[in-house]
Amino acid sequence: MGEALTRDFEIGAEIGRGRFGVVRRCRSVATGEEFAVKSVDKRLLADSVDRECVAREANVHGLAAARNAYAAQIHGAYEDDHWVHLVVELLDGPDLCDRIAARGGTPFPEPEAAAVVEALAEALAACHRRGVAHRDVKPDNVLFDALGHLKLADFGSAQCFLDADGEWAPMRGLVGTPWYVAPEVVAGREYGEKVDVWSVGVVMYMMLSGGAPPFYGDTAAETFEAVGRANLRFPSRVFRSLSPAAKDLMRRMLCRDVARRFSAEQILGHPWIVSGGMSPVEGPSRDPSVSMERPEGSLLGLCA
Questions:
Q1: Is 194 annotated as a binding residue?
Q2: Which residues bind ATP (predicted)?
């Protein structure tokens, strides 16, 4: 632990662990307020892509989260010879991966899934307006605060896709988790922020299928092949009762043609989202644990 970090924060118990480091609870010495500290061991970074992601994470996270009610907030950054420490909002309840697993293969009711997709689209629309792509949207990185408000977390793979003049600066590199990456990423082409929309489409499919991803292989290579084919199907045994509007939105998000794929803003205007995931015969049955109220003010990754 860095001297500056331990001067400002009391470090507590571990609450998460990833490939490159660990997340712990921490408490501000000055105020007593609780946070989480994500500590990345720079000695474990495998290549230049990983090193670049860690080097820019604090700045990109701060840009993406500023005035973004649906993003986990960052409160400080510390670095020494071997570690990078990011102090972030404490969100230690069940993440979306846990919520999917807890249902034991039972799909989410459409209103509950719509609430999550809407909040994720709000989070990403704000990021994209600031020129930031998350690049690793998945259930493990969809967290909730104590009031049930959704917070998009872990900007370790995020990158700016606009340059200093506001011009489009395409991204490259195989970044993300196999089930959730977009076809253009797998193909090795330049890509933009709509890779995040593809990932939200995968998350939506998993919520409505009871946890099954739309594109799957027994190995990462087979999964990438399935993603590249982008053969989207809705097996009747799983999706028999799913509304046409929900399927339509997923087709528009999981669209191989990037030009035709929805933007995050377009998700928010789709009838399935506008109606709260309810068909004309359904009543308002949204899960109260997934709040769509905007919070006032205001970690590490079958999910991974």
A1: no
A2: 38
DSSP class per residue in 113-163: HHHHHHHHHHHHHHHHHTTEE-----GGGEEE-TT-BEEE---TT-EE-B-
Residue from 136, 140, 154, 196 carrying the catalytic annotation? 136
Q: In this predicted model, what pLDDT tens digit does every residue of 37-54 receive, in sequence order? A: 999 888 877 777 777 777
* Domains of the chain by start residue, with CATH: 3-88 (3.30.200.20), 96-274 (1.10.510.10)
Is residue 136 flagged as an active site residue?
Answer: yes
236-291 per-position pLDDT tens digit: 999 999 999 999 999 999 999 999 999 999 999 999 999 999 864 444 444 434 44
Question: Where would I find the H helices in the chain?
Answer: 3-8, 48-65, 96-102, 110-129, 183-186, 194-209, 220-229, 236-239, 244-253, 264-269, 271-274
